[in-house]
Design brief:
171 residues; mainly alpha
Amino acid sequence: MGQKARTLVGADVDHIITLLRKAYADEWLAMIQYETAAFQAKGIMRTDVVRDLKENAMEEYDHAMKLGRRICELGGTVPLTPEEMIKESNCAYIKPGESCLGRIIEQTIISERCAIGVYKQLLNEVQGKDEMTMKLIVTILAEELEHEDEFQNFKEDMDSLLAKIRDCKEK
């Protein structure tokens, strides 16, 4: 790691590394959650939801790799075990224990909203202190906002479809 990277960030570098480690752990856990949910998913919109879960899992992996690289550039180390990741994460790992597509969509929205909050906080912490980390966080935050929007749209589509089915049954 170049000493200049730590110098540019200043006295808050260890605090920023800690926040980045937590986000790194979140990304790994989200990737596992989404891949597992994709295997479990059943329901009428399964194909589209599974496709997006798998795409998002790969994006979460990409986020983790970028965060890990930045942590190392700043002189830190990434969490090395699943136990460390669970302990350090901001967002709880939500075990997709049921195959209900509606529940999987809700769990994904919860996870994405947590990630959005984490990156908003990180952005506030690094603004004016660490331009390289700030650019990374802005990019990741934009993708997390897209993920939340995708799954919110799935939820609205499912709710609308269920309402139409109920209406048909009542007639």
